[in-house]
Design a protein that fits this description.
The chain has 7 helices and 21 strands. The chain is of the alpha+beta class. The protein folds into 2 domains: about 5-290, Metallo-beta-lactamase, Chain A (4-Layer Sandwich), CATH 3.60.15; about 305-385, Thrombin, subunit H, CATH 2.40.10.220. Strand 9 (about 170-175) and strand 10 form a beta hairpin. The two termini are about 45 Å apart. The chain binds zinc ion (2 copies).
């Protein structure tokens, strides 16, 4: 029997344009794309930014293994490039066995069938090598407007208008496991839109919100259609949400700039998270678990002795000697007696075996996963390395 869990995966978290530079690599450079698997195993895609390519590859690989076709509802918040750019690279659209129901609004600049036309336009000559006829999957297009609701399996979906140039929809997903609200690309400051956003997020277990700027940047970027982490926190508090996820990071925000946003935001709201590519949130009726799909290790690496310093969940500094294992280019696992806070920084110093004079190597990493170990009181801590 299916468990009563909704699973939300972040495949793209960057706003405006993809960023491939190393300074943005830890949080990820792909533009918005989220995958939501509802408790009845329905598949939903929220936005079709460049993150959609990897999601499609993952679904295609799974379909090849199971022999099953793919069916999904695809919700597109608006037509800015960063939210549609992944469509031509979504492999499951090129198989006639698959079927997709697309939902978006009628743009006053494009007219009827806006999303279908956006598809055609982005694949027209000379912008793309093959045209839309190469996409053999079954496709249906539905128009939505703010205030509309519909059901996808066991999930009730409601759309609301957000404050963004040329329009944007926010979505509320009421699943049997809990409520998720997704509101990217929104500028605060217009009372009726601010109120609509609070209603969209009302009591949500997970609220994903535009936090492209710092409050100072927002001051000088009025009219660009985006929000700050501080405005997101104000909305989260007014709507009494349980977990806030700051989303749509500016392409010019380096990982350390995003770290500063998280640190400042944590001072004002306890359950705040920074969206990161690979992050997975599992929503059960009682709790929200956060995990991170770090690249799987090969399993043959030896464990190495390390000294780890960091902060526990109640803010105390710890310093312990332990072993690090599963080391990959980006990630590793460390067994610790102290449980650090998720998304907090750790310093890891490789310990040189006695007698060797080699310089000690210090690495900084971030906690992305915590799992209690069944056989002792330790926790298995998944980390991602900082540049
Ligand atoms: Zn955007
Ligand atoms: Zn936009």
């Amino acid at each position: 029997m299916a468990e009563n869990i909704a699973k939300l995966s972040f495949w793209g978290v960057r706003g405006s344009t993809p960023s491939a530079d190393r300074t943005t690599w830890r949080y990820g450079g792909n533009t918005p794309c989220l995958e939501l698997i509802t408790p009845d195993q329905g598949r939903l895609i929220l936005d079709c930014g460049t993150g959609l390519r990897m999601l499609g590859n993952s679904w295609a690989a799974e379909a090849e293994q199971t022999g099953r076709s793919i069916e999904a509802d695809v919700l597109v918040t608006h037509y800015h490039w960063d939210h549609i750019q992944g469509i031509p690279f979504f492999a499951p659209l090129y198989s006639p066995r698959n079927a997709f129901r697309f939902h978006s609004f009628r743009s006053e600049f494009v007219g009827p069938e806006s999303l279908k036309r956006a598809f055609e336009a982005q694949m027209a000559h000379p912008y793309f090598p093959v045209n839309l006829s190469a996409m053999s999957a079954h496709r249906e297009f539905t128009e939505l407007a703010g205030g509309d609701s519909f059901n996808a399996g066991d999930t009730r979906i409601t759309a609301r208008w957000l404050n963004h140039p040329q329009g944007c929809l926010g979505f509320r997903f009421e699943t049997p496991a809990g409520v998720i609200a997704y509101a990217t690309d929104n500028e605060p400051g217009v009372p009726e839109f601010d109120q609509a956003l609070i209603e969209l997020a009302d009591g949500a277990d997970i609220f994903i919100n535009d936090a492209q700027y710092t409050p100072e940047q927002l001051e000088s970027r009025k009219g660009w259609g985006h929000s700050s982490w501080l405005a997101s926190i104000r909305t989260a508090k007014a709507a009494r949400v349980r977990h806030l996820v700051l989303f749509h990071h500016d392409p010019d925000s380096s990982d350390s700039a995003v770290d500063r946003i998280l640190r400042d935001a944590r001072g004002q709201f306890e359950n705040v998270w920074i969206a990161a590519e690979g992050m997975v949130m599992s929503l059960g009726t009682k709790q929200v678990d956060i995990d991170f799909c770090t690249q799987r290790h090969l399993g043959s690496e030896p464990s190495l002795p390390v000294r780890v310093t960091g902060q526990t969940q109640d803010g105390k500094t710890f310093d312990e000697h332990t072993m690090i294992h599963d080391m990959g280019m980006r990630s590793a696992t460390i067994d610790l007696a102290h449980a650090p806070k998720l998304q907090s920084a750790l310093q890891v110093v490789m310990e040189t075996p006695a007698g060797e004079t080699e310089k000690r190597r210090a690495l900084r990493c971030y906690v992305v996963r915590l799992e209690p170990k069944p056989d002792n009181n330790e926790v298995s801590v998944g980390v991602v390395f900082v540049e």
